Amino acid sequence: MILRVCRGAAAMVALLMGAASAAAQPAELPATVVTLTGKTELFKKGDTKWVTAELRDEVREGDGVRTSPAVRTTLRTGGGHSIRVAALTQVFVLAPTGSPAGAGTNPQPVRLRLDRGWLWVVVTPGVHAQAPIEVTAGPARVAVRQGGVGFRLNRDGSVIVRTYHGLAVVRGSDPAGAWERSLPEPQEVLVPASGPPPENRKITKEDGEGLWVLWNEEQDYVAYGGKPPVR
Prior knowledge:
alpha+beta; 2 helices; 16% helix
C-alpha cells in the first residue's frame, strides 16, 4: 500500500514538473521561416550538422540559423513578431532561464544569441507586459519592449544596438558588471567588449548597411508601426 502511494506521488510530481516546464517555454515558439532570399541553413537541436532551410520550416529552442553572403532571412513568431537575419549572420534560440522577476505567469520571452553579423528584431505595436524577445549580443543583453531594434556585432567584440522606433532596455550580459540603460528611439548605444557603455547617441549610418536598414524600415512601416523610410 505504501509503495503504491509513493509511486502515485512520484507520478504526480513528475506530471507537475512537466507542466511547469511546458509553461516556461516561450509561447511565441516555434518561429517560422517566412522569407528566404538565398541559401540559409538551420541547425536543429540534437543534430550534428547544418541543413538547408526551406520556407515554412520551424525554429525552436536550441535551434540555430545562419546565412550565406547576399542572403536575408525572416522568422516570424507565433504572435507575429519578426526576427530578420542579415547576410553572413548566425543566431541561436536559447533555452528559457526560468520565470523572470515580476513576470508572474507571463510567458517566457524568446531568447536569442547573436554569434556574428547583423540582426533586426521588431515586435508588434502595443504595450507588452514584458519584452517578447530578448537578444544577447556579445557584451549586451537587450530586451526589445516595442518597435524595431537593430544589432551589429563587431569584430572587436563590441556591439551597436539601435532603436529605430519603440524602446529597448540594454543590460550587460555579464552578471558581474551590473548596468542597465534605457534606449528609446531614435538612439543607439555602442557597448564595448568590457565595461559599461558611453552615453546614448543619435543613430548613425555607415557604409554598407544602407540597403539592409531600408529593407527593414520598409517592412516596419507597412506592418509594425515604424516611421516612413528615408531613402
